Amino acid sequence: MICRNGKQAQRGSVLMVTLFMVGLLGFFVFAYLYLVRTQRSFVARSQAWNAAMAVAEAGVEEALAQLNPGAPASSINRSANGWGSAVNGIYGPISRTLANNNGSYTVVYTTDTYPTIYSTGTVTVASIPATLTRVVRVTTSDAGLFKAGLATKYNLDLKGNNVETDSFNSTLGTLSNNGQYDPTKTSTNGDLASIAGIVNVGNADINGSVLLGPGASETQLKNGTVTGGITNDFNVEFPDVILPSGTPLAAAPLIVPLVTNSVSYDYAFFISGYYSIADLKANIYVAPGVNVNLLLTGDATADSIRVGSGGTNTSGSLTIYMDGPTFTLTGTDIVDSGNALNFSYYGTTNNTTVKLGGNGTFTGTVYAPEADFTMGGGGTTPYDFVGAGVVKSATLNGHFRFHYDENLTRGGPKSGYVATSWTEL
Question: What pTM was estimated for this model as a whole?
Fold first, then answer.
């Protein structure tokens, strides 16, 4: 007769159940830890994937910074700052390692008129381990330096009576008279703009829009009008002015002043070139067909600047680079060049004041982003200011009429390059 021990069988069953439960619990713990590890890997990979794009964008920013060193953009040296000579239509590569995210980028750009930028961002994730790479292609186009008739960084105050703005286009017969401003052929793009501060329209008649930037807090109106309304999307940067390369030739005053149109000129230029004057307290004349870059290194005062105009192909040009603190123009014939493209004024970071007064006319452009600009007076003709301006702040007194040449957007000086498309390869 065989006897079975019931307690032993019961113990065996409990042991089997316990082992099964422990195994099942261990499986769940393993599965949970594996899930956590996998999720952590996915998160790390996702973060690295996003970081690789940010690193590639950093490469694009460096390329754009190289292509936009300052105004005017015509002074760009694409091979400077380690970019080297172009090989097979490519400048670069430039490679950088970023310390904070184990990333690096390599960036190049093409020799095209409008460069194409290629940037590769790479991020290494040691915990996976993995190396992730993303490549972007950015196309560019040039951007006009003058995006409005008059633009400021801080504050724009129209104090005078009968201040007016409008626009024309020197390349269109319907909006000009042989390239000249014609009060019977105008348009309504005489915009005013300010990145920050207060725009006081006062009693002015703005045949255009008032464009406010992110720091512009208020637009004040008395009896003035703004035909194009007020917008809040003027978000731009005004780069510093860079001087031309090379050493200028010191300009000597004439022994016998040149007299033309009843005005006496102490400096007259009949040969194209790059010149300098230390302290200007005289009038300037540039002959037709002569192209002059003029560096002013001290305070400057003139009653008249005349750029000779002999027709479309024979007009002269004068580009002033003001590296001194104060520039003052007063008189009955301030600038007479026929076309705003023929006279350009660039104020460096040392140029803090620009004054335009008298009853004369001004035809040209003023770009002085660190200068307070004051315009006073205004003549009896409708041509007071023809062209465009970018300054730190502006105050208009008197009865100035401001006429923006829309051709400056396309045919005028450039601020550099802007991205027009962004594609991941």
Answer: 0.83
Write down the domain spans for the chain: 43-142, 150-417
pLDDT computed for residue 31 by the predictor: 67
User: To the nearest whole percent, how much of the chain has pLDDT over 90?
Assistant: 54
pLDDT in tens, 246-303: 999 999 999 999 998 788 999 999 999 999 999 999 999 999 889 999 999 999 999 8
Strand partners, 277: 296
